[in-house]
Amino acid sequence: MKESDLERTVRDYLALRGWCCLKKSPFPHGEPDIIAARNNQALFIELKLVSRKLSPGQERRKQEIESGGNNYYVCHSLE
To answer: Is residue 76 a contact partner of residue 49, using CB atoms and an 8 Å limit?
Structure first.
């Protein structure tokens, strides 16, 4: 599976559950792949294939997002 396939699957899943997903591009480097919003809630989702890890810049951004009380997820699949 390619990361683009995972992105499409996650976006479809979220849309079916009423989440509004923002387009990835042109987010700056280090930003999560998907930002989703629903009912005054936000999800920040970084997509990674199973063997991949967050870059140092992504780790820093994850900490910034979480320190603001937001939910940040690293998604490898829907399972």
So the answer is: yes
Q: Check if the beta carbon of residue 33 is closer than 8 Å to that of residue 46.
A: yes
Beta bridge pairs of residue 34: 45
Q: What is the pTM of this model?
A: 0.88
Alpha-carbon gap, residue 38 to 36, rounded angstroms: 7
Gap between the Cα atoms of 68 and 23, Å rounded: 22
Mapping DSSP to helix (H, G, I), strand (E, B) and coil, where does residue 8 land?
Answer: helix
Checking DSSP bridges between strand 71-75 and strand 20-22, what pairing results, if any?
unpaired
pLDDT band at 44 (very low <50, low <70, confident <90, very high): very high
The pLDDT of residue 66: 97
